[in-house]
């Protein structure tokens, strides 16, 4: 097995304990430690080597088994090898001519992902630098299908277009002085995309969710009717498979019925939850995904490919992706080439330079096989659901996926009756524990408010390196850090 | 000095000659050689190692000194080391908390680039996955400055907006049967951006250029007046510093006068030509850049940082970038953190995951110093301008930058009088030579038509590893490959 502890080993000549997740310094302190200034004269190699060591030392060890802070953690070593090769080969995926190997590998990976999704007649796709761009592509394709003319003439005389998405991360936080009035949807990329694309954040209609954060289909239909009654044109629905905070899965099958009825593009943001489809045991979470128009799925999340590795998949077989994004630049996409130019996939992208991210997934899949990927997903989900009987904690939500959301109850709050006062106090606990956690460097896990709920911890269990002991450590450590609060 | 020949050395146990730029196979042949299928069972390590070797072997060696095909070539080894570290550390640049080192390094590099540009009061910026996105950011910021309300309400009741850019790559190619009627601008990213952003490609007005591909300022003013007379709203001008094909530099100072007069956002796409600003001798090419509103500059091009390394820089000091792109997701950008959250730069981006590309430039700048960077630019430009007295060739354009554009005249065409017939014959030469070149693998350089000009070669001289011998080799080799035509 390849060595995954590279980062920590490189640090072995420093005084940092090997198992610290991070060595916290404030921005001002760290600036002094790093000597960031760029000068006229270069530095000798020994100095540069030390700067490399420092960059590693003061970075967060996201592959540490006690890093639970993000929707990525751990590093599949085969994928890291692939990313080193991709960096060293230094090429872009616009033409077959300049990236023959990676062009074919991207094609192979996309075909396999499409097969796993269950689009029996095939489809199309592309790897993007991150899931946000994949979601933005979905909006663009949906809009293009609704009216291809917008590509040329813009939307200036268009009717008001509306996107529908589930409402999870509502930010009307009542526990701080800063009342933020914006409402956000599942993942904020849909909002960001709507702003960028001239559609506007207010034309992203949020659909109410149930107590577990899943879109309510009847509410979706009501919102569609509402938009129509206002004279607006709903053109796509964004369903989420694995929301960022709760790990909730919208009911795709029921949503697909509604989209078919109203002729709406159905996109599934499965950036986080897409991995479940690898597992016979858990793929029911994505039931109906074979019916949707497009999917965003990031193997750099639960499947631990190197960052970034984000696929955008489309069920269309009529070159919609190409037609929607193409500009046919003559200096790159010459039509009088001597090979089949359908292998020049660059014009499917809004980027020009595009990295061969698919290779990172291809190599690890080749090495591990679908079965090992499946077992890893099963193991992570089993682990996430295993721990939570502990009197110091209260689960905010029963985990549906690998997101474990919980409040830590310090002894001083444990026997108080439930009241607005209690929630207000509880809201202040997580930020203080987080601060102490960062300064200790023993572990990392995130926290956030949600709607009217006080700040709670979100621990994301991904890596097969994580053991039961690591999970127990988290519970003990949060208690150690917060028991005086 | 670090070893840059890594890629070739890794191939040493194969039969590939060390100095081949590529080993050409058709897509169908290469598919068989690579065995791309992903299966249920994984493969043993020895097999995977062979797959890594094959990926390298059949990839194009873009760091080979005879690779002149793209606006990138060669690899700065310090930058490659940085990219390996960044891959291994595996983190995203959204918050200081999870990327403390890279956040500060990005800040330091951006500040330094802003200083070099000459924005004395500072500015703002961000690294993006490629220059196309930087150009798209410029359009978005310009639009946001014109009307911040579009972010929320979209452009549905907006007046028709118009972007102005120079017209270089016109694709009305008269030499092939495929008459492509689209007109394209400097770099197609402005068109792609206009399509994505709901502005529409037809609302990108192209400004005529002089014989060297530079925007004509008086023509710009006429186009602005034309747009206004049509009732449209011109809101930004995209000037290009180093066009893709010709390496032309628009006259920024004169364009800035016009933009000030009409209150238009002035963006400079200096993705390719930005490196000239490092050189006292050549920075006059960008005269006036201290007056513009935003700049896109890719150190992965002439400065040879690893792919991708693309900076977007804004002169604004009022958080325009943040205000234009922010969504303030509560799970990531908590306001009750214990450190200065202005270091959480993720909300300046439309991405969520974003790679620490700045580190690749920071480390090499630290190692080489500004002076060595300057010398490299000077050397590449001197080299590009040095060679072209050879009776087999005719320069299409005197090089203004590192793009050397030329026709190869086979002996059969050399003494013919100039006529449409001659140009038509000449148009077919480059594709045949290119095909033979790829199959030989001895070198790589690109070709394209331009406007009514027949297909010509574009050779891009970047790497300090390129010698006079390499350039001579190119001339001899093209002649060898095409003398029978």
> Domains counted in the coordinates of chain A: how many?
2
Q: What proportion of the residues of chain A form beta strands (DSSP E)?
A: 5-15%
* Biggest pleated sheet of chain A: 7 strands, mixed
Q: Would you give the CATH topology of the largest domain in chain A?
A: Aspartate Aminotransferase, domain 2
* Structural class label of chain A: alpha/beta
The greatest interface between two protein chains, and residues involved on each side, is: A-B, 158 and 158 residues
The share of residues in helices of chain A is 25-40%
Oligomeric state as shown: homodimer
Q: How does CATH name the architecture of the largest domain in chain A?
A: 3-Layer(aba) Sandwich
Task: Give the total of beta strands of chain A.
Answer: 12
Radius of gyration of chain A over alpha carbons? Answer: 24 Å
Total number of helices of chain A:
15
Give the SSE string of chain A: HHHEHHEHHEHEHEHEEEHHEEHHEEH
Q: Within the largest sheet of chain A, what's the order of strands?
A: 2-8-7-6-5-3-4
Account of the 3D structure:
- 2 copies of one chain form a homodimer.
- Chain A is an alpha/beta fold.
- The first copy, chain A, folds into 2 domains: 82-368, Type I PLP-dependent aspartate aminotransferase-like (Major domain) (Aspartate Aminotransferase, domain 2); 385-482, Aspartate Aminotransferase, domain 1 (Alpha-Beta Complex).
- Chain A is 38% helix and 13% strand.
- Chain A has helices at 6-10, 27-34, 45-57, 77-89, 100-117, 131-146, 150-153, 189-196, 217-229, 252-262, 320-325, 358-384, 411-414, 420-440, 468-482, and strands at 67-68, 124-128, 161-166, 204-207, 233-240, 265-269, 294-297, 310-314, 393-397, 403-408, 444-450, 453-460.
- In chain A, strands 2-8-7-6-5-3-4 form a 7-stranded mixed β-sheet, with helices on both faces. In chain A, strands 1-11-12-10-9 form a 5-stranded mixed β-sheet, covered by helices on one side.
- Chain A starts with 5 loop residues before the first helix and ends with a helix.
- Chains A and B meet through helix 2, helix 3, helix 4, helix 5 and helix 6 of A and helix 2, helix 3, helix 4, helix 5 and helix 6 of B.
């Amino acid at each position: 097995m390849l060595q995954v502890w590279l980062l920590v080993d490189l640090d072995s000549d420093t005084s940092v304990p090997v198992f610290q997740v991070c060595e916290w310094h404030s921005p001002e302190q760290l600036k002094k430690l790093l000597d960031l200034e760029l000068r006229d004269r270069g530095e000798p190699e020994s100095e540069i080597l030390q700067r490399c060591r420092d960059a590693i030392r003061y970075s967060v060890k996201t592959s540490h088994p006690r890093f639970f802070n993000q929707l990525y953690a751990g590093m599949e070593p085969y994928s890291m090898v692939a990313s080193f090769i991709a960096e060293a080969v230094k090429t872009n995926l616009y033409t077959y001519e300049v990236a023959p190997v990676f062009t074919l590998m991207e094609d192979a990976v996309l075909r396999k992902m499409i097969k796993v999704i269950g689009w029996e007649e095939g489809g199309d796709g592309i790897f993007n630098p991150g899931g946000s761009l994949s979601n933005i592509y979905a909006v663009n394709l949906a809009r293009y299908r609704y009216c291809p003319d917008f590509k040329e003439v813009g939307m200036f005389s268009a009717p008001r277009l509306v996107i529908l998405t589930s409402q999870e991360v509502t930010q009307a936080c009542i526990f701080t002085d800063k009342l933020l009035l914006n409402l956000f949807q599942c993942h904020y990329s849909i909002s960001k995309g709507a702003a960028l694309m001239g559609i506007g954040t207010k034309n992203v209609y949020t659909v109410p969710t149930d107590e577990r954060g899943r879109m309510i289909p009847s509410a979706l239909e009501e919102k569609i009717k509402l938009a129509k009654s206002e004279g607006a044109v709903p053109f796509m629905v964004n369903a989420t498979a694995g929301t960022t905070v709760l790990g909730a899965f919208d009911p795709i099958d029921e949503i697909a019925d509604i989209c078919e009825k109203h002729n709406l593009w159905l996109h599934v943001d499965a950036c986080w939850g897409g991995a479940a489809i690898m597992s016979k045991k858990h793929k029911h979470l994505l039931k109906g995904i074979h019916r949707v128009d497009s999917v965003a799925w990031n193997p750099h999340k639960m499947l631990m490919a190197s960052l970034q590795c984000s696929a955008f998949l489309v069920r269309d077989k009529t070159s919609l992706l190409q037609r929607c994004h193409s500009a046919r630049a003559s200096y790159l996409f010459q039509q009088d080439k001597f090979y089949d130019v359908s292998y020049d996939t660059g014009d499917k992208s809004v980027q020009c330079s595009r990295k061969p991210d698919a290779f990172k997934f291809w190599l690890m899949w080749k090495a591990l096989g679908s079965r090992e990927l499946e077992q890893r997903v099963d193991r992570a989900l089993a682990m996430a659901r295993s721990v939570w009987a502990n009197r110091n904690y209260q689960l905010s939500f029963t985990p549906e996926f690998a997101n474990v959301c919980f409040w830590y109850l310090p002894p001083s709050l444990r026997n108080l009756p439930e009241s607005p006062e209690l929630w207000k106090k509880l809201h202040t606990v997580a930020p203080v524990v987080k601060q102490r956690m960062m300064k200790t460097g023993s572990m990392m896990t995130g926290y956030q408010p949600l709607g009217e709920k006080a700040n709670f911890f979100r621990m994301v269990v991904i890596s097969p390196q994580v053991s039961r002991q690591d999970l127990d450590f988290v519970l003990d450590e949060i208690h150690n850090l917060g028991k005086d609060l």
